[in-house]
Design brief:
Distance between the termini: 21 Å
Oligomer: single chain
Number of strands: 8
Order of helices and strands: HHHHEEHEEHEHEHHHEEH
Structural class: alpha+beta
Number of helices: 11
Amino acid sequence: MHPLDAAILRTLLYADVFDYAMRLHELHRYLIHYEVVPLAHLETRLKTSTRLQELLIHQDDLICLKINRNHIEKRQLRLTYMATLSAQVRRYSRWLATVPFVRMVALTGAIAVENPAKANDDLDFMMIVEPGRVWLARAFSIVLVRLGRLQGVEICPNYVTASNRLQQTRCDLYIAHEIAQLVPLFDDDLYPAFWTENGWHQDWLPNSTPLSAEEPVRPYLPLKRVLEWLLGGRLGMWLERWEYRRKSHKFLQGPQPHDSSARINSDEVKGHFNDHGAAVLAAYEERLAAYGLKMTPVDEAPAQVFSQCAK
């Protein structure tokens, strides 16, 4: 199979795990390949490859596998959910940005790629926090989670990390996608550093480039400054330690699932006790095998240097 045909098919098979019909620019951005490919080359290959024309369907600016053509209708429906969800994202991300010591708030998950499964899908966020205040900031965010539930909105600050703990310890295709899809909504100059620290992900997704929100949210600064003044000294340090001891004991007591991807320490709270990524990659590998493709594009690349994470 032509290398670019394999890259296109590999990318659409990954999207297929999420019932995700892709726009052309999405296919280009998330192309799983061993080198950067210009958009014009991708368009040409889609139009001229007999093999791709046999396997793919293009309809209403969306592309997916013919065997799952219903994904196009599903994506069109999901796009109608975005107006309401986008308004909720802005509203609650502004409050998360107001949480004391939070230095970056980013949208992650399905809504970040405009593919919510339902009209009231979860709002998934990542927060980067000043070192020494991770658990205190998380406690404030949980208050917001509970207030959101009273209004029928599920807010999920799934990943809270210190600004000195930006590098991801796990580096596979699933995490590479999470990094590339992340949309910074509030940023105190940390997003470029996060991107650089995790530059390995471009070994998987070489066309990906840093994203930016169309209109970044602004925290309620007077409130944020007052809270940081009150909690910036010994009181905040005591509360941080108390909350860490209290919650880490609760999180870690009892046996953990063998596929847990949770990380609980003084600088990081990632509460994914069931590893969604492992299930996604297993389903993806099954799809690849059906088309005679391998998991990583490195296996099909000419001799060149890749980071250890992509090997």
